Amino acid sequence: MLELIKAGGLLMWPILLCSIISLAITVERFWSLQTKRITPRNLVAKVWQWQKVGHLDARRIHDLRLGSPLGRLLAAGLANMQHEREVMKESIEEVGRHVTHELERFLNTLGTIASITPLLGLLGTVIGMIKVFAVITTQGIGDPAVLSEGISEALITTAAGLTIAIPTLISYRYFRGRVDELVISMEQESLKMVEVIHGEREHDSVHRVPGE
Is pLDDT of 8 > 70? Predict the structure, then answer.
């Protein structure tokens, strides 16, 4: 592996660095964007149970805010539940923009890596071919071993750049779609809570928490 990196020239090192960053972000995002961490199951039903039995106090709202991104949205609405429906929705939307930004963390970096690694590979190709033509100009084409160094550098960097860019682009597209799904789910759950609080949705339509 080290010999391959050396054969690819100096540009293999930034390509290798990009691969490490891409892998780290992919693993972190897979962990962070799990459904159970973002939109815990039956959270709205749990909030409604607290409200029904009179346990929805400031402490529970604070714990709710710290528990999950969905909890932050619900807590923002509950902090204004004495106001009109539109006020609750506006407070949820405001917090929702911050939550969405947090869910998209590192995705721009992932997209940048997917874009620049093929360019780094292409740059390595150009540098390798320049070396080949420089050798031909000074020494002719009589020694294939001398020419092979530049050709190898050109091919290795191109292959390395594409090898990193393709899975990184797949991860980037996947996480973009994943964030969109989670945001829509949080919006639906938050709206459900607002409608229940204001009596615009039947309470039985909110799934009860098992065991309650």
Answer: no
